[in-house]
Write a structure and sequence with these properties.
Layout: H1 2-8, E1 13-15, E2 34-36, H2 38-48
Parallel strand pairs: 1-2
Protein name: PIN domain-containing protein
Length: 50
């Protein structure tokens, strides 16, 4: 349900410490949605805002 909501909201990222529970089923795969940890997100955000 969380992945479906993220996709419906056109989210680029789903940020969670529990990435193993958010593996995307092939039926739900969307290359525009990245599932990342908070640390990974901050690294991505910092590199794009330098």
């Amino acid at each position: 349900m969380v992945i479906e909501l993220a996709r419906a909201g056109s989210s680029e990222f789903l940020i969670t410490r529990n990435t193993k529970d958010f593996t995307i089923d092939t039926d739900l795969r969307n290359d525009d949605l990245r599932i990342v940890t908070p640390t990974e997100f901050m690294q991505i955000w910092r590199s794009s805002h330098e």
